[in-house]
Please model this.
Amino acid sequence: MDRTSLTVAITLFVCLRVSTNGEQCPYKECTCTGANVACEDLDLSTVPPLLSTNLSGPFVLVFENTQITTIEAGSLPPHLMNLELSNNPITTIDNSAFIESAATLQTMTFSSVAFSRIPDALLQITNLASLAVLDSTITDWNDNVMKHLGTTLLVLELDNINLKTWPEWIHYLVHLTDLKVVNNFINDIPNDAFDTIASSLNSLALYNNYLVSIPEAFKSLSSLQMLYLNDNQITDVRNLAQIQGPLFSLTLSNNKISAANILSQSLRPFELTLFGIEINHNELTAIPDLSFLEGITNLDLSYNNIFSASQLSLPPTLTSLDLDSNNLRSLPYNMSSLSHVTNLILNTNFITEINGIDFPPQVISIILAYNLITEITDTSFPDNSNIEELNINDNPLSKISPLAFKNLPHLNLLQMRNTKLTRLPISLALATNLDNFDISGTFGLVCTCEEKSLGSVIGTMNSDNVKGDCGLTSVYDFFVTLSHFCP
Model:
């Protein structure tokens, strides 16, 4: 082979870039990995020419961050399986652009495109299962196209497309299993909105809209398993109880729900199915009765207005309880009944004291930062406690009993930053398993020979695991160096 022929052969090999599944790369400007073709961040004004007319596919094709305005017939490789057009100023797609992928194209994403009407080109596609339209403004949804796609479409996502009213054409999509209409301006849903997909819809996401109540339209949903309603303006949840489906997971965070008793009643129909619920960032003033939800293991009630927790009726299977950022003045008195809870988050409340009899018996991790605790006593922790991690940062803590940590034989991590302590707690000598201690930000702290006994715990730790200073000397250096000069 002469030099010219060799150069031509090498060039063809590089340009075609045979992929790991034996397929050729359709464009020399793009990057190919297996069946994936990525044309990203390129200064393209048109779709580049195909390198071959004999491509067999299937291909997953992404055009992202280019200047392409038109997709012409014959410019796309045949046998496309997945097409994503993202952040391209596309205004026109030729009616014949998808003819060679009519039966293979299953997933399509339009993101930040410039056309305002769903293209007629989609009429050529016969097996599209998933369509996503994101960050675009579509004013004409082209009824003929949506009716055509309705015979095969299973998944639809409409994200941030400036929708102000419910798209009536959704009733054409009779096989939908997964529907997302999110980050829009919808405040009302017609009562018959889901009638044609009531038996097929498994997952429904309507988050970040302007709903103020649970729509009555939900009553027809007989197969619904996942429901995402976070980031709305919902105050009325009564229609939840009308859902006929099993409902496995429910997200209601970032709304304006305040009536704990109504929320509890509305969840009763799902006592045997619901295993996940999110109701943080609402306006609850009391903890709802959720004792009937035996599938719940993690419960997040953070960022509500809960001030009364005198009576807890929570799932017996609960292992983690988050009450961060509420208005609690004390620990709920019957919290000890939560026999499976191992993680307890109570930071950013108004708790002034803690008592060992109030803690769940199996608790391992407790966060009590940003409260109003001033003292830790001999009875602050339960007998024979399993607590391994304790965080009491940012409390006005000024007094710790010499026997305060006698019930913490498993304590491994102790955080008590930014307190009002002036001396190191002698009780630390009882925490023989302590491996990580942080008392930084406690600016009035002094270390004296009276605390020399703590050297058996602190002096044996890794220096990186001991944080805090006694005046100009680090706590660690005091016990490793200076305490040896004590009488």
Remarks:
- The mean pLDDT is 91.
